[in-house]
Amino acid sequence: MNNLIIKNAEQVVTCSGHKGKRGREMRELHVVENGTVVVTNGIISHVLEQGKPIPMREDEYVVLDATGKSLLPGFVDPHTHFVFGGYREEEFAWRMRGDSYMEIMNRGGGIVNTTRATREATEEELMESGRQRLNAMLRLGITTVEGKSGYGLDRETELKQLRVMRRLNDEHPVDIMPTFMGAHATPAEWKGREDEFIDFNIREMFPLVAREQLAEAVDIFCEEGVFTIEQSRRYLLAAREQGFLLKIHADEIVSFGGAELAAELGCLSADHLLQASDRGIRAMAEAGVVATLLPLTAFSLREAYARGRAMIDAGCMVALATDLNPGSSFTASVPLLFALACIYMELTPEEAVTAFTINSAAALNRADRVGSIDVGKQGDLVLLQFPSYKFLPYHVGMNIVDTVIKRGEIVVKNDL
Ligand code: NIG
Ligand code: FE
Prior knowledge:
Layout: E1 4-13, E2 31-40, E3 43-48, E4 62-65, E5 70-73, E6 75-77, H1 89-97, H2 101-106, H3 111-120, H4 123-139, E7 142-148, H5 155-171, E8 175-183, H6 194-211, E9 217-222, H7 229-241, E10 245-250, H8 258-265, E11 269-272, H9 278-287, E12 290-293, H10 295-301, H11 308-313, E13 317-320, H12 334-343, H13 349-355, H14 358-362, E14 381-384, H15 391-394, E15 401-406, E16 409-413
Parallel strand pairs: 1-4, 1-5, 6-7, 7-8, 8-9, 9-10, 10-11, 11-12, 12-13
Antiparallel strand pairs: 1-2, 2-3, 5-14, 14-15, 15-16
Helix pairs in contact: 4-5, 6-7, 8-9
């Protein structure tokens, strides 16, 4: 039935809205004090203020008393690479010794290393590790996640990764939005023939993925030494023609013009942006491109953080994501994400919550369905052990999630 009443929450942090929020709007969380939320048949049917009678027969509902706790929309993680084979713990040690991410990539480590392991992994092995990662994310309050292919870089393995995501989406409470990332790196067999590899993706992979509806969006690693601006433009324009939404890994390592390209093409989101230029930031704000920031990656790579404060002040729609992947960010730590976003990117707690709910839903083209506590949206909710959302960045690195609700059903009850 999935009928649920959560009553007496100290705060119902609604994040109300049906599209992403820009600039100053990101401060408004539309909190209802001592509120009650009713989910009927998996969909939010009532958001009630203190003292309002509950117009339902309580015996037809599971009733949760949330006294002393705060209720938020389920978190939406709009950038991950959670389906992969193997690990890269040696590379972490090398980086700490002083090798750069790009040096390691250029000598056959990095993405290509994971590609080898992902090609070798069976579909069932990828299912099992993917499932475990989703379980961990769910316990941290993530109820919707984006997942990218891009560790196959050949026909068979790219499709295998996308099929795994489709199967996990069917069997797991977490909703998955799949993204095709055929241009994540150039595999050994195409090295030096990057343009032809882009053509292969456009001519062979896009139609295959589109025909089987295995992905909603297409993404590319636009970076010095990976794919050029020109290659990225060609690839993304072709993707749009074939009906895909557009995403781009932009300005991660060097200032490369990726943010500007995202604005030019009207990408749904541009992600990373550690080195985005002032011009790129202004262009993204004007074009309404979601700037998806990944503080756990900057932390793990010991890089300078993206300029989140400047982006919001420039009127950008900023989202946050974990970037869970085996190389640059092997973590889905939502608690650390909130702390880093506030401490180093200078987001306020309100902006950080907006960035990981309604704005991250917008980065997945799902702000009409999830990302806020509004009547008519999916009953995806996270109940915190503490009375205010302000504990999210403040209680550094601690999982303060009490209960996770997916479509009105209690799917996690953390033993706190
Ligand atoms: O988002 N930067 C490119 N892609 C991933 C890293 C992938 C990897 O290192 O395996 C990212 O950080
Ligand atoms: Fe990424």
